[in-house]
Specification:
With about 600 residues, the chain is of the alpha/beta class. About 25% of the residues lie in helices and about 25% in strands. Helix 5 runs antiparallel to helix 10 and helix 11 crosses helix 15.
Length: about 600
């Protein structure tokens, strides 16, 4: 079922062998350097000879890479580690140079090793990848020998046709080829060497999956099937153009359907790659998710899904929530089953041992072990990834290094870890300023938190100097190319929209809108559902919102289309479309800061939180 042209897969395997064999002069030297069990079947890490019944399969996995080829900046590039004494430690992590080294090191001594991902490898990417429609990231994934991935919601940011190009190759239909090859000819993008799986995404007209629904990894008689799905709610969090002509189906029903198909084909060992996740009780990556009992330390959509997926599936690799966890959640038969997620941006990878029984062709569930590992920046960089970054960086440099503004300190956004972030306030203010330049009657601006992809960091990332915000850094924060739209909403609609932050599809995982200066209210998290928004506390410039009055509201085109579960915001009237949100942000930074008068981090005090 592989979607990969057969002539390309052997080349990848040769790359892996070369990576393992680097620095060894002969095949004999390589054999001598491997553990005694290498090349043989071995349960639990101990060899029982080549005729033993079980063999350990190493499953390496990660998720939500989002084109972060270079180490993410600020808190977006850190993981939190729980120490033996109960204290917590922040560790700088991530970057494809280190991820490649980590995975290659982990594979050594493991002859049965497969690498998988759970979606959002591309989309919402920093400029180094996003400027080139994520071709650099696909190339990097090829080099680090990714075997298979599910699609995520962000794989649909540019639509199904562009996703197909990521799989099959070819130059961009509008921007063409980005590099020159021999003789100055255009260098064609080759596409992914690994299959993208989209079992629950079908074409509305044909009813068939737009990509392969599953793929089977085979090695020396061992077979493991992979089923890939994204969250059913993808249309709610992706622009309408990105999912036009597509249908997204129930995750549980889809996985169960294809698990039966694999089972009938004799594939009894099955892993699901699902771009949906959960929220652990602790943000430390090494938190015990099974304390006090199996799966007790996690909540969210993945728990319901895991409990509904057929016992034929032996493990779930998940994503989407950007959290880290290793849990055993009971399957429908009540038996514990491994469910993992490796944070985001390549900061962690998960190493799972699947003990394969050659007689039953199934995984011995009681022997499954899993752990998340930090992609440390203290290890050596992978030279081929350094070369890749350098090559693309030269193409991006003229755009990326332009200064657009100045700040006096870190302005946390994605990594703030609180409902209202300083960067959220700054972006909302920028969008209101842009809206007022179009219509002086604009009253307020709202910004969806998921559209803020990083932090603004005071420390220089290159040669620009401390406090300088470059175009590349601003792009990393807002990479979606949404427009800033103006609409009329009644006060009643505005209140309903704010309540949708914590109700409906957002009740389980609230999406707290970032608000421009002048809009204030109280969010009471001790209550449930829509009651969390204290309606009589909502004020604009100190005056209570009048349900019957009309307000001119700025928001990005994604929110104006009702995205992220904000259906009421999609009902605005008298729409006016402004410039793209990145331009609005950059213009605001340029107009309101200088080297002598940098912007100070906003106080983030517009929403009062009651816990």
């Amino acid at each position: 079922m592989s979607a990969i042209p057969k002539h390309r897969r052997p080349r990848r395997r040769a790359t892996r062998v070369l990576a393992v064999a680097a620095g060894l002069a002969t095949v004999g030297a390589l054999a001598a350097s491997l553990p005694a069990s290498a090349g043989q079947d071995h349960p639990g890490g101990g060899s029982k000879g080549k005729h033993s019944r079980t063999v350990d399969v190493q499953l390496l996995s990660f998720n939500d890479f989002h084109g972060n080829l270079q180490p993410p900046a600020g808190s977006s590039g850190q993981v939190t580690e729980r120490q033996a004494d109960g204290s917590e430690k922040k560790i700088d992590a991530g970057g494809v140079e280190y991820l490649a080294t980590s995975l290659r090191t982990a594979r050594k001594g493991n002859p049965y090793s497969v690498t998988a991902a759970a979606g959002d490898l591309i989309g919402a990417s920093p400029l180094l990848s996003g400027l080139f429609h994520d071709e650099p990231t696909v190339e990097a994934m090829n080099k680090l020998d990714l075997d298979v991935t599910s699609v995520g919601n962000h794989e649909f940011d540019e639509g199904a046709k562009e996703l197909a190009r990521m799989q099959n190759g070819g130059c961009h239909p509008k921007d063409g080829c980005f590099e020159k090859g021999k003789g100055g000819k255009e260098k064609k993008f080759e596409g992914a060497d690994y299959p993208y799986l989209a079992a629950n995404v079908t074409d509305e007209k044909t009813g068939k999956p737009i990509l392969k629904p599953y793929w089977v990894w085979k090695h020396k008689g061992v077979k493991v099937g992979f089923i890939g799905v994204t969250l059913e709610g993808t249309p709610d969090i992706v622009s309408a153009d990105g999912v036009k002509g597509l249908k997204f189906h129930d995750e549980i029903e889809t996985v169960n359907k294809y698990a039966k198909i694999l089972d009938k084909q004799g594939v009894k060992s099955i892993v699901t790659l699902i771009h949906e996740g959960g929220v652990p009780k602790s943000q430390t990556y090494n938190y015990d998710c099974d304390s006090p009992g199996a799966g007790d330390g996690i909540s969210g959509p993945v728990t319901t899904i895991a409990k509904g997926i057929t016992p034929k599936v032996d493990a779930l690799v998940t994503g989407h929530t950007h959290n880290a966890y290793v849990c055993t959640i009971p399957d429908p038969a009540g038996k514990p089953r491994m469910v993992t997620s490796a944070s985001s941006f390549g900061k962690l990878y998960t190493d799972t041992t699947l003990t394969y029984d050659r007689k039953t062709k199934d995984i011995v569930r009681t022997s499954v072990r899993s752990a998340n590992h930090v992609v440390s920046r203290e290890q050596a960089k992978a030279p081929d990834m350094t070369s890749l970054i350098s090559r693309w960086d030269k193409l991006a440099a003229p755009v990326a290094n332009k200064a657009v503004g100045y700040v006096s300190g870190d302005i946390p956004g994605r990594g703030a870890g609180v409902p209202e972030s300083p960067l959220g306030d700054l972006i909302s203010d920028a969008q209101l300023a842009h809206a007022k330049s179009i219509d002086p009657e604009a009253d307020l601006a709202l910004m969806n938190p998921g559209g803020i992809r990083s932090d603004i960091v005071y420390k220089a990332s290159g040669s620009e100097g401390d406090g300088v915000v470059t175009y590349g850094e601003a792009f990393t924060v807002q990479p979606f190319s949404n427009t800033v739209n103006l609409v009329d909403l009644t006060g009643a609609q505005l209140v309903t929209g704010l309540k949708q932050q914590v109700s409906g599809s957002n009740e389980a995982s609230p999406k707290i809108l970032q608000v421009s200066q002048g809009l204030t209210y109280t969010l009471d998290m001790t209550k449930t559902g829509a009651d969390r928004v204290v309606a009589d506390s909502i004020k604009l410039n100190g005056k209570a919102i009048d349900p019957a009055a009309t307000y001119r509201v700025a928001m990005n085109s994604f929110l104006a289309g009702g995205g992220d579960g904000f259906a009421e915001l999609g009902k605005g009237t008298k729409p006016v479309v402004g410039s793209d949100d990145l331009k609005a942000f950059n213009d605001y930074l340029t107009a309101n800061s200088s080297a002598d008068k940098p912007i100070a981090p906003p106080k983030a005090d517009r929403i009062t939180i009651v816990k």
